[in-house]
Specification:
Blueprint: H1 2-7, H2 9-22, H3 33-42, H4 52-55, H5 59-65, H6 79-82, H7 87-99, H8 116-122, E1 133-144, E2 148-155, E3 158-165, H9 173-183, E4 189-198, E5 204-215, E6 225-226, E7 231-232, H10 238-243, H11 245-251, H12 253-275, E8 279-280, E9 286-287, E10 299-302, E11 307-311, H13 316-324, E12 329-337, E13 349-358, H14 362-381, E14 385-388, E15 391-394, E16 400-403, H15 404-412, H16 421-430, H17 442-454, E17 462-465, E18 487-492, E19 495-502, H18 507-522, H19 532-539, E20 545-551, H20 552-560
Helix pairs in contact: 2-3, 11-12, 12-14, 12-20, 15-17, 16-17, 18-19
The protein binds one RNA strand of 75 nucleotides through helix 5, helix 6, strand 1, strand 2 and strand 3.
Length: 577
RNA sequence: GUCCCCAUAGCUCAGCGGUAGAGCAGCGGAUUCUUAAUCCGCGGGUCGCAGGUUCGAAUCCUGCUGGGGACACCA
């Protein structure tokens, strides 16, 4: 062996020499196509030992001489190989089922009488009630062992083990051997009927006596597997999860739980408001004048009217019109649309619930928010202490209350109200806070300081109250300080989740403040347009009113302990593919 | 809108100039208490798209598309 290799040495040296002619050999130690050509002509080592045979499998010659069509054509392969790993395997099984007279998408219903969770919860106490169960869901795992097999069924409520035994199977044995073992795939939707028992290892299991295919699944499912030592991740790519949310929901029971909780949050809020006698209403999404918030709107076009319309950025002005109209408490779960950037706290369409209650003020509303959240958090989480990331948030009222300027002074170590614009800009630079959008007004700079330095520091539920008048054009002047308004925000985990005022009901003041906004708008700033009809409504008399906006997505993020808003939106906005 | 990172098998990822890899899923076989079933065998890819550099590109460069993160806007 050794001497054979040695006798190839001259050939190898020849190769190196020829290669040197073709290119910069010093940078590589690999065999090139031209090397192979040399070998091809030499064929044999001077000692007589064949060379080409040994070299023939080297990569370049493979590429060099290989006929591209030498591989078997796809349709020449037997079916089982041709479509291995592809959806077509399942398509073929579907045809096979039809041949056996089994419709893969039957019309007949399959009424169930229990669920996986129900069996797991109640069977140990009430064994006699589970002699004949019917349930339906996806076939989730198969552990085939010859004449008996285990499988897992996943229904809406969770997973339960199935047991199939050839000899006790009610149908013909072929149903076990062919239909169950060969033609059913993971992900297929089936209905099963049988009795519940406990295995030797203590797992509650359905002994299946009859099953029915209800819908064939034509895709391979990414199925998660996990043990103590190791987890085989299934579907973690966020893009795929959001684009194919149905798949995400099939695979991840915890994702289903997030959306159940989101719905539970909405229901708890609705229940609370309804018990209070507030009226749930619906107001226009398509508006010819938008308002109620600072935001760029989406525009659309009405063909018959021949006019531009806006998707609402807020429903505030409509709800106040309803209070003018005589309702004392109205609320709406409002999907609002804002034409702004997308990040983990912002989606272009999002949901808030807004509530307006006549004859109340923001102090009353603060207590109302505490009572509401106490109820909602307890109902959804079963406790008032909620884990959010590294924090444990405590929703037990009362929440800390801190005035806007006092919080700012506490954080900055001095009162910033008397500083000049230049001094404020300097202060922002000093604290490494990016400058806001120009024009730089005192109030914009102060608001930037507050938003960047103060707000994120409130982790536990905290009311910040008495905001500057300039940044709150719809809130009533503070009863003691005319440069402030009666407004609060609720901050949790450093983010605003609610915003409320004693609503401005002085039509003259409101007109002046909105005209000021209109002037700012004309100067290029983001500000509210003037809604003449809204002013007119106020002129008819809005009772003293407390108003609230509560961000449902943000609240859901906190209560579900997720860090991105996309996790609490079933179908977050993504670019189309 | 700006900057940084990512895109390889159905899924999760490795490879980062020299024949495209693993685990899970899939296919064939064995298996009547398994549970990540196990054991034996097998297949699976336009390496996001388009150019460029190179004898040779999944790998290096440029552009594009999509996503993630940060910033800006905003809630």
């Amino acid at each position: 062996m050794l001497h054979e290799s040695l006798c190839h040495l001259p050939v190898i040296l020849l190769i190196l020499w020829v290669s040197g002619i073709f290119g910069d050999f010093s940078t590589r130690l690999h065999i090139l196509p031209q090397d192979i050509l040399v070998l091809y002509f030499l064929r044999k080592c001077p000692c007589g030992a064949p060379i080409l045979k040994e070299v023939a499998l080297l990569p370049p010659i493979n590429a060099y001489f290989k006929n591209n069509d030498s591989r078997p054509k796809l349709n020449e392969l037997p079916l089982c190989r041709r479509f291995a790993g592809m959806d077509e395997v399942r398509r073929a099984k579907l045809q096979e089922l039809r041949k056996l007279g089994i419709e893969p998408y039957p019309t007949e219903p399959f009424p169930t009488n229990t669920t996986a969770a129900e069996i797991l919860r109640s069977y140990p106490q009430k064994k006699s009630e589970f002699k004949s169960v019917r349930l339906a869901g996806r076939l989730w795992r198969k552990r085939l062992m010859g004449k008996a097999s285990f499988a897992v069924l996943r229904d809406e409520t969770g997973d339960i083990q199935l047991y199939f035994q050839r000899d006790t199977f009610a149908e013909k044995p072929e149903w076990y051997d062919v239909v169950f073992k060969k033609l059913l795939d993971l992900g297929d939707i089936i209905g099963v009927e049988g009795f519940v028992f406990t295995t030797k290892t203590g797992e509650i299991t359905i002994h299946v006596e009859y099953f029915r295919l209800l819908a064939k699944c034509l895709h391979n499912l990414p199925i998660e597997k996990a043990t103590e030592e190791k987890t085989y991740a299934a579907l973690t790519n966020p893009e795929l999860r959001y684009r194919m949310r149905y798949l995400d929901l099939i695979v991840h029971l915890e994702v289903r739980e997030i959306f159940r909780q989101r719905t539970a949050i909405v229901q708890a809020i609705r229940d609370y408001f309804n018990e209070k006698g507030f009226l749930e209403v619906e107001t226009p999404i398509l508006q010819s004048v938008y308002g109620g918030a600072f935001a760029r709107p989406f525009t659309t076009y009405h063909n018959a009217l021949g006019m531009e319309l806006f998707l609402r950025i807020s429903n505030e002005l409509f709800l106040k019109r309803l209070i003018v109209g005589g309702f004392t408490g109205v609320y709406e779960f409002s999907k609002d649309f804002r034409n702004e950037g997308i990040d983990r706290y912002h989606n272009p369409e999002f949901t808030q619930v807004e509530l307006y209650v006549a004859y109340q003020d923001y102090y009353w509303m603060m207590e109302e928010v505490e009572r509401l959240l106490e109820r909602v958090v307890r109902q959804v989480k079963g406790t008032l202490k909620v884990k959010y990331g590294e924090y444990e948030l405590d929703f037990t009222p009362p929440y800390r209350r801190v005035r806007y300027y006092e919080a700012l002074e506490e954080r900055m170590g001095r009162d910033v109200r008397n500083l000049s614009e230049e001094a404020l800009i300097e202060l922002l630079r000093e604290r490494e806070v990016p400058l806001p959008e120009p024009p730089y007004t005192k109030i914009n700079l102060i608001a930037q300081l507050f938003d960047k330095l103060v707000e994120p520091s409130f982790i536990q539920p905290t009311f910040v109250l008495d905001y500057p008048l300039e940044i709150s054009p719809l809130a009533k002047r503070h009863r003691q300080a005319p440069e402030l308004v009666e407004r609060f925000e609720l901050i949790v985990a450093g983010k605003e989740i609610a915003n409320a005022y004693s609503e401005l009901n002085d039509p003259l003041d409101q007109r002046a403040r909105l005209e000021r906004q209109a002037a700012l708008r004309a100067a290029g700033a983001e500000a509210m347009p003037l809604d003449e009809d809204f002013i007119r409504a106020l002129e008819y008399g809005l009772p003293p009113t407390a108003g609230l906006g509560l961000g449902i997505d943000r609240l859901a993020m906190i209560l579900c302990n997720v860090r991105s808003i996309q996790e609490v939106l079933l179908f977050p906005l993504l670019r189309p593919q």
